[in-house]
Amino acid sequence: MNFELTKEQEMIRKMVRDFATEKIAPRAIDIDVNAKFPEDLFKEMGELGLLGIPFPEEVGGSGGDTVSYALAAEEIARVCGSTGLSYAAAVSLGSSPIYYFGTDEQKEKFLKPLASGEALGSFGLTEPNAGSDAGGTKTTAKIDGEDYVINGEKCFITNASYAKQIIVTAVTGKDDRGKNIISAIIVPTDTPGITITDNYDKMGVRGSNTAEIVLEDVRVPKENLLGDPEKGFKQFLYTLDGGRISIAALGVGIAQASLDKALEYAKERKQFGQSISNFQAIQFKLADMAMEVELARNMVLKAAWLKDQGKNFTKEAAYAKLFASETATRNANEAIQIHGGYGYMREYEVERYLRDAKLLEIGEGTSEIQRLVIARQFGC
Amino acid sequence: MNIYVLMKKTFDTEEKIQIDGGVIEEEGAEFIINPYDEYAIEEAIKIRDDHGGEVTVVTVGDEESEQQLRTALAMGADKAVLVNTEDDLEDGDQYSTVRILEAYFEDKDVDIILAGNVAIDEASGQVGPRLADKLDIPYVTTITNLEIGGEDVKIVRDVEGDEETVETSLPLLVTCQQGLNEPRYPSLPGIMKAKKKPLEELELDDLDLDEDDVEAKTETVEVFLPPEKEAGRVLEGETEDQVKELVSLLKTEAKVL
Ligand SMILES: Cc1cc2nc3c(=O)[nH]c(=O)nc-3n(C[C@H](O)[C@H](O)[C@H](O)COP(=O)(O)OP(=O)(O)OC[C@H]3O[C@@H](n4cnc5c(N)ncnc54)[C@H](O)[C@@H]3O)c2cc1C
Ligand SMILES: Cc1cc2nc3c(=O)[nH]c(=O)nc-3n(C[C@H](O)[C@H](O)[C@H](O)COP(=O)(O)OP(=O)(O)OC[C@H]3O[C@@H](n4cnc5c(N)ncnc54)[C@H](O)[C@@H]3O)c2cc1C
Q1: Which of A21, A69, A74, A378 has the CB geometry, 3.0–4.6 Å to A249, for a possible disulfide?
Q2: Same-domain pairing of A74 and A111
Q3: Which residues does residue B175 pair with via DSSP β-bridges, in sequence order?
Q4: CA A339 / ligand 2 centre spacing (Å)
Q5: Which residue's alpha carbon is nearest to atom 17 within ligand 2?
Q6: A300 with A253, same domain?
Q7: Per CB distance under 8 Å, which residues of A are interface residues toward B?
């Protein structure tokens, strides 16, 4: 057993923390209020190699590991949930599937620009009538000569308005038992027939771009099919397993930020002639918050470590995502409580933490779906 | 060009500092590159990129200093040297550090040495100038701009908020002040590459020094935190009376007059 980070992991965490504190944190309130995607920050993050952490240098990445990636996601979310979500989605959903399942040509053409931070990518799975039940996908992709012709609709797709390409899941046929075969296809966003609109007025992660996508007779070459045509469903389950580690890391970041703010405030705020941190009622809240952050972080790092070791991590990623996202919501809620009336005000930031945290219980598989995933691992 | 940087590992003074039994509690303290040394590292990398050569970062420290040296390598320095005094030196001071550095530089062919203006922990600002003196090369402190053309060097330095322009020549030692540049973040590829860059570890023996040679010339008598800041007081009344009251308070309460 060894709980120590390597020197590289330690350095990456320190660098991202410095960057997040100096460059992102001063803009977090503004990003939330104006619901404006901070494109320039992503450019800087790209230049620092943050968008390519878990990918090797050959494909434009930085040659880091999942643990480092999780640490980076935590540090970013600690100051800004919006930037954190867009970051995690870009890496885990936009890039990872191409790295796991893409051909060498696809990696060269589609992954390199993302991993090296020149462009962003999206992953379009959710549809108006297929959310938790991704098997209910309605979008179709039919072969016509050398092309796929894609028709359908996707919703809630992170980063789509700023993406160079979107990995779209679509029904490509039926198997022997008459069940839909779902495949993943890389669709460049400048292909005719795609309409991307971002009109959602969101509760939280307001600066993260979220868009609706309509695909009308969108033609892409057959070689844009990602991975095995028969195993598209399995592939995105694997993709989501990995993505859950990063969503969980965002949860740890928000939960930690909630604790930091609450502790600092509790020590300063005086009522009844003393710091409210002297009251046991407040101390117990802080103790629970600190404990849960630590537990959540340990679970995230364990899941990331398992993935780096090439071991099975499905269950652990679900534990981490479920516990860390719910911890983030609980801690943010308690942080507001400890701040009293001030906590209800935007300026103190903790109310934003709660709005941002709530998304983590929904995106990349709701808390209920995590529990299903865990139970399935027991053979239920 | 042979470019050297003097770097010190310090505790982060923006984090909470605790003192236990007259020494700063290291457990739980955050350690960083002395912020002024970051300007030195950044400037060294820029000089190398413009004029060619090699940047070597030198520190006198302990095992843990490797972390800060690796960070400097990740920023773009080429080589690092750790003079590890953990086993040989109980309480060094500026004299000790300069003596060690002097021995290190004895056989080195130096074009420029960059150091921080001060280290934020002890803030003596002595190591740079004293080393230059020992090496018998010119030095310029608190620089905010540096231009090198051949052997000639043009420097702007900060003199308590004003600027002074100095012309000098290589070889040279400078100490770096805020405003000189904006230190870069170590990039991810930089961090991964730093692992493979050379980091040489030396002990006093390797520099032909004995413990006695580097024994501190000063003694630390006491270490304490500054008193907690109390709320300010606003004086009221006629200006003349306020001045009188202020002077009397400075005498009786603050005891500074
Ligand atoms: C800000 C944001 C960003 C997003 N980014 C992306 C993205 O980049 N790409 C993408 O593809 N999608 C994205 N999504 C979509 C997200 O993954 C879905 O919203 C999520 O999977 C839930 O699907 P749904 O909204 O259709 O809810 P539903 O599936 O309709 O769920 C409604 C409720 O029913 C529960 N439920 C459903 N099925 C079961 C069951 N079998 N047992 C028990 N309870 C059940 C759910 O847990 C939930 O509580 C994003 C969503 C948001 C809000
Ligand atoms: C939208 C809004 C509308 C409002 N409207 C009005 C109004 O119309 N009129 C008005 O007068 N006020 C109003 N308020 C103020 C509101 O009543 C106070 O915010 C509330 O009483 C809490 O006080 P506080 O914000 O100073 O928090 P604090 O008293 O500082 O409390 C901070 C935290 O410490 C805890 N705490 C404090 N003392 C103890 C203790 N002894 N033991 C254990 N825990 C303790 C609290 O429970 C809380 O968790 C309003 C506030 C808001 C946000």
Answers
A1: A74
A2: yes
A3: B115
A4: 8
A5: A341
A6: yes
A7: 7-8, 10-12, 14-15, 18-19, 47-50, 52-53, 57, 62-64
Q: Which of B67, B187, B188 sits opposite A10 (nearest CB)?
A: B67
In this complex, do B185 and A11 lie within 8 Å of one another by their Cβ atoms? no
Q: Which two tokens stand for residue B101?
A: 């550095």
Last residue of a domain, one of A230, A265, A284: A230
Closest C-alpha to A313, from A301, A323, A325: A301
Q: What is the mean pLDDT of chain B?
A: 93
The domain spanning residue A192 has which CATH number? 2.40.110.10
How many Cα atoms are found within 13 Å in the side-chain-facing hemisphere of A53? Answer: 27
ipTM over 0.90: no
Looking at the structure, tell me whether residues A69 and A127 fall in a common domain.
no
Q: What percent of chain B has pLDDT over 70?
A: 100
In a domain, A29, yes or no: yes
| Tokens of residue B190, six digits | 């930089």
Residue A78 sits in the same domain as residue A174: no
| CB-based contact B188 A49, cutoff 8 Å | yes
Per-residue model confidence (pLDDT) at position A306: 97
By CB neighbour count within 10 A (0-12 exposed, 13-18 middle, 19+ buried), where does A377 fall?
middle
Which residues of chain B form CATH 3.40.50.620?
A: 2-214
**A118 in catalytic set:** no
* Beta-carbon-side half-sphere exposure of residue B6 (alpha carbons within 13 Å): 30
The pLDDT of B159-172, averaged and rounded, is 94
Asked whether residue A130 falls in the same domain as residue A83, the answer is: no
**A2 domain-assigned:** no
pLDDT tens track, chain A, 380 positions = 889 999 999 999 999 999 999 999 999 999 999 999 999 999 999 999 999 999 999 999 999 999 999 999 999 999 999 999 999 999 999 999 999 999 999 999 999 999 999 999 999 999 999 999 988 999 999 999 999 999 999 999 999 999 999 999 999 999 889 899 999 999 999 999 999 999 999 999 999 999 999 999 999 999 999 998 888 788 888 999 999 999 999 999 999 999 999 999 999 999 999 999 999 999 999 999 999 999 999 999 999 999 999 999 999 999 999 999 999 999 999 999 999 999 999 999 999 999 999 999 999 999 999 999 999 999 98
Q: Say yes or no: A113 and A169 in one domain.
A: no
* Total number of domains in chain A: 3
**Looking at domain B2-214, does it have CATH number 1.10.287.3510?**
no
Give the pLDDT band of residue B118 (cuts 50, 70, 90): very high
Token output for A52 = 């390519």
Which residues 6+ apart lie within 8 Å of B232 measured at CB? none
Out of A172, A199, A230, a domain closes at: A230
- Which residue minimizes the CA distance to atom 50 of ligand 2? A341
For residues B67-75, give the mean pLDDT: 96
List Cα–Cα distances, A236 to A183, A231, A233, B67, in angstroms: 9, 9, 5, 39
Backbone angles phi, psi at A372, to 5 degrees: -65, -45
Domain carrying residue A308: 233-377
- Cα separation, B1 vs B12, in Å, equals 32
| Residue contact A7–B187, C-beta within 8 A | no
A65 and A143 share one domain: no
**Closest residue CA from atom 13 of ligand 2:** A341
From the CA of A184, which ligand is nearest? 1
